[in-house]
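Researcher: Before we compare anything, I want clean individual predictions. No alignment, no superposition, just each chain on its own. First chain goes here; please echo the sequence and then give the structure tokens.
Model: Echoing the first chain and its structure:
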Amino acid sequence: MKVLVLGSGGREHALAWKLASSAAVSRVFVGPGNAGTAQHAANLRSVRPMTFETISEACRDHAIDCVFVGPEAPLAEGVVDFLASHRIPAIGPTRKAAQLESSKAFSKAFLQRNGLPTAAAETFEDPYTFERWVRARKGRRLVVKKSGLAAGKGVFESDDTEELIAFGAPVLQDDQLLVEEFLEGWEVSIFGLSDGKDFVVLPPCTDFKKAHEDDTGPNTGGMGSICPVPWVDAALMRTIRDRVVEPTYEALRRDGLCYAGVLYFGLMITADGPKVLEFNVRFGDPETQVLLPMLNADLGGILEAMVSRSLSRLPAPPASGGSALGVVVASRGYPDASEPNAVVTAVPAAREGASVVFHASTVLGDDGKVRTGGGRCFTAVGLGTDLAQAAERAYGAAGGVRFDGAWYRADIGRKFMA
């Protein structure tokens, strides 16, 4: 099977890396890819994920058997529907089902309509009603969310009324706004794979969204991640499956969404049990970078089963023993105005069973030099028998990534090691 991975980030590098080792995959392509994906696959720089004709042309030219859609934006715009019309199998939901991520208002209505555990919320469409509602709850900590896609940065939480209004009012100029109760607890990321009939659940992950140590500072796309999560034991996983995952897939069938692809459950573990914060309709970044090294299964074989709707015939993908921890290396200024085009002078080589560095925002120039594109540029992943050893190896690799302005959080995973 020939697979085209759509995208150019750290998630796509991890997917190409994993698929390159699959007995079921004869060749991997990535469109457009980055400087790291070229180590494991053929980059197709002519592919532009939001220009669907370039994808179908690449599939025709290279006899692609399956497209794995990495980022959310093409899914939200209907790339799977487009490829289906060209009889090209793809991993990902239809445009209608992708609203679970592209519209938080749609997602919250789905959760509430189907009685799934989630935070109480209100949806707003005009600034006056929003401001009046927030002022009536002065002093309460609230979470304000842009309904549409925002690359992980469209969420703001505060108990300061003026700050909440200042964040939300501009959003309402061209989007809906969700305001939720603030939930106390800790977060975990659960990923399900579905063929439209059956599903499997992968090992739990968690990411670290805040820019600075001790989970402070602005939200980012994710500054690190771990897999599995030590606080998620077998009993909690059963609860998550019984109360959230299985009822969600049942609700998707009832609502006629026929969901096939990757579904991310962003959960808050509260005193009342797990509650859904959000859905994503694809693998997360940087969670994918720690999840795939922990997956002791042939990813290509899983993709074949998803395409042929025969997932039930496969055994549940087992997790490898041990732990993985990922540290994101970002460019100076991120998550605000970050600096692109820095020359990368060093990237540590992968150490089998110990560490691997995934490229995200990088480009290999015609001069042979790797340059950064700004933002989150690399994810250094450490593997170990436990989280402490994985952290030591991840930070060793992160420290070996060299470019002007490189920085990273120093405490990824620390709270889970206490």
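Researcher: Okay. Second chain, same rules.
Model: Second chain and its structure:
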Amino acid sequence: MRPKTLLALAMLFAVAATGSARVRIAVQNGKRVIYNDGVGEKSPTAGRKRSVGEQQWLAARITRPSEFDSLITRSANDHSLDPRLVKSVMLVESGFNPSAVSPKGARGLMQLMPSTASRHGVRNIHDPAQNIAGGTKYLSHLLGLFDGNLEKSLAAYNAGEGAVARYGGIPPYNETQNYVRRALTAYYGTPYAGGSGTSLGGGFGKPFAGKPVRIERDSQNRPVLTTARPSAPVLRRLS
């Protein structure tokens, strides 16, 4: 191993030793990848609502590798979703902590309620592979239910399908509105203040409507959620 590599690793492990980070090296696509994931990662400014620092942290953290990227990609492909969307939900839900338990009883990486986990075939709710698969399946269900509308689907993931149906959109709950903002800030990589027909109560300053989300067909005729420019006839709903 090169001296520079040894020095870099020594510094990385020294930094990790002072906090709760878990450092490990894995091989992906023939290349060594160093993971420095915290347990229950949070932005340095997570306590400040609509903080510019939190926006920047969310947008930056989503681009860095996590320990669960391969499982995220596998589950996202199984359900024709963008892996970045699944990873954004996981980041906001648990900060990549498979042992996370919310005060309301949601558990694991994707913060599944036991009833939701059971409905989507999850037997061990704290097993990363099962939890990610169940959460991705549930997110896919919500996107189909709300015709691919990201704001409504994410709001339903947080507050429940009934609340979104009752209010005809994102419920007027601070927790849910902040949740949608944070998840879409991570997903789009830029501050999100509300999309078409959505009121998010002030946003982060200048409104950003985000990239339009469409559903296309891939080479195997499967529906795929995308924000890229149209390359094929657009479908209106998942089937």
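Researcher: What stands out in the second chain?
Model: The chain has nine helices and four strands. Additionally, The longest helix spans residues 128-145.
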